[in-house]
Amino acid sequence: MTTDAAALLERLLATPAASAPAHAGDGRLYFLHDAEGSAQVWEIPAGGGAPRPRTRHRDAVSHVAGLPDGGAVFGRDGAGDERVQLHHLPPQGEPRALTAAPEVIHGWGAVSPEGGRIAYTANARDPAHTDAWVMDIATGGARCVAEVEGPHELPAWAPDGQALLLASAPRSFEASLDRVALADGARTPLTPHEGDWRHLSPCGRRKGGGFWLLSDRGRDFLGVAFQGPGAAEPRFLHAPPHDVELLQVSPDQSLLAVVVNEGGYSRLRFLDAESGAVRATPWHPRGVITKVSWAPEGHPDGSHVAFDLAGFAFPSGLHRAWPDRPDSAPLLPAAPPPGLRQWESITYPTHDGREIPAFLALPEGEAPGGGWPMLVWVHGGPAAQALPNWRPDLQAVLALGIGVLVPNVRGSTGYGRAYAALDDREKRLDSVADLAAAHAFLAARAEVDEGRIGIMGQSYGGWMVLAATTEYPGLWACGVDFYGIARWKTFFERTGPWRIGHRAAEYGDPVRDAALLERLSPLLRAERIACPLLVAQGMTDPRVPPLESAQIVAALERRGVPVEYLTFPDEGHGFTKRENRRRVYRAVLAFLATHLKG
């Protein structure tokens, strides 16, 4: 690893990020900030002023939600185990625990309309089932209002506070909404339908009933819709040829703030809540928005939203936008080192004539005589999308003199339902063939050294690395696998029980489709892996248990294939602490320097 790349990595890791803004009722803004090493709750006072930290834990905070009285509710787990516990943060003073069941997952839901109660899910009854719960914040009194089968979410309350909206998603591209009465737990279907359609992000209308939502019912992409009382199906208000990913209604319910995914880049828009007409599309830097929060009525800065925004060349910062102004304004902008590389949006041809969308970045300057070495980075999911997001590790890879290609192979989201279905079950290896096509695309470029192309991925992307190096062993100079699945049988035996049904709908049933899953298990073809591998694993990971990494490492060690294995006892499905990111990213840079540049 070069000194320049190591020094840049340190500067990038030291650059703080702010995300997940959430207004409280008194106008203060809560958000997550990682200045002290992991994401913690910070606030900006209602009247403005310097941001200040409100929590100081070693483990990362998963979410924060503002309360009408100026306080907040947040969640955090223990060492990445995803058993989130909920905490109340008063307007002043220290937080207090609302839940204290370290074996239970508490899934955040929503704050009640009057602000005194919260809704959340909990799998206390059975690890595989997330029941609906309501808690009084002041007393801590909690009760289960509905027992449900499988994993569920509670995205909203009914406007009258007498019911919850329950979201169930048995598979990646199906989601239904039910009304659950608090009095007796009775469930009323709100979105009865045939077919695998999604109904997401409901926002109840106070006057006249009904609710706004995101849906792809009868469409290839998610759009903004309204479902009136007693209506058989939603009425679309805003249906662009892209997914609308975020929806928030203004406090007076006259406007909708939405975020549209345009080729991976987010675009904020304000819509008329009744007609869906676009009222404004304020300018903001190109990047990725993950959270939007309306300021409460009466805010001194007027009606506006706060949102986070990250890009490949800058970490997440906070911005504001108004429906009557053409531009956004930075509130807590990111401050990265200058001169970082940007993505180029491209496509490349694959084996069946399709064009695969991707992002490409090359190192600065002229290519060396033999061409640049390259790294193909594969996202997880698989129902996910690689975004032009902040990646300190990939920026350091570029500084090392290695180019990066990030494909959104078939099965990725963001390009419509039909594209996302192209890798389902028995078609799984078609997406791996898209990686071989990525290699061919790079190898044909004059500025690339076709003999020095590596591959890297995390989670399901880690499985893609193992699948690529077993299905196409002669292509890759090296591979980096972060907590990837090595054998589907052992994965299903040990993954969190709350995940099995949803994952089986995506990958295949572990009993009925056992033969298919064995064919798709890289561990059973590990004798074909010919390139060096770096494997990294969080030891509290409830999604991809450590056995998956240990198995592939042992198989390679038995054959004498070079393999490095990094484990992290205080991390789960991802590396959230700065010191752990430093350790794993430095190891990746050293590994790539040896096998792609050495």
UniProtKB/TrEMBL annotation:
Role description: This enzyme catalyzes the hydrolysis of the N-terminal peptide bond of an N-acetylated peptide to generate an N-acetylated amino acid and a peptide with a free N-terminus. It preferentially cleaves off Ac-Ala, Ac-Met and Ac-Ser. Also, involved in the degradation of oxidized and glycated proteins.
Coiled-coil segments on the chain, per record: none
Protein name: Acyl-peptide hydrolase
Keywords attached to this entry: Acetylation, Hydrolase
Organism whose genome encodes this protein: Teichococcus rhizosphaerae
Gene3D superfamilies: alpha/beta hydrolase (3.40.50.1820), TolB, C-terminal domain (2.120.10.30)
Peptidase S9 prolyl oligopeptidase catalytic domain residues: 395-597
InterPro entries reported for this sequence: 6-blade_b-propeller_TolB-like, AB_hydrolase_fold, Pept_S9_AS, Peptidase_S9_cat, Peptidase_S9A
